[in-house]
Amino acid sequence: MVPVPPYLAALPWAVPFLAFIRLARHRPDLARAPLASGRLVSVIVPARNEEDNLPILLDSLLQTRYDKVEVIVVDDRSTDGTSAVVRGYAERDARVRLIEGAELPAGWFGKPWACVQGYREARGDLLLFTDADTRHAPELLGRAVGALESQRRDLVTVIGRMICGSFWERVIMPIIGALLAIRFHPTAVNRARRASEAIANGQFILVTRESYEAVGTHAAVKHEVAEDLAMAQLYFRAGRPQLFAFGLRLLGTRMYTSLAGLVEGWSKNVYVGGRRSYPDEPVLRALIPVMFAFGALFWLLPPAALILALVGVAPALLAPAAWATGLSAMFWVLFNAGFGINPLYGFSYPLGVVMTGWIFARSTRRGEQRIEWRGRTYTAG
Question: Per the count of CB atoms within 10 A, which of 46, 69, 235, 269 is most buried?
Answer without folding.
Answer: 46
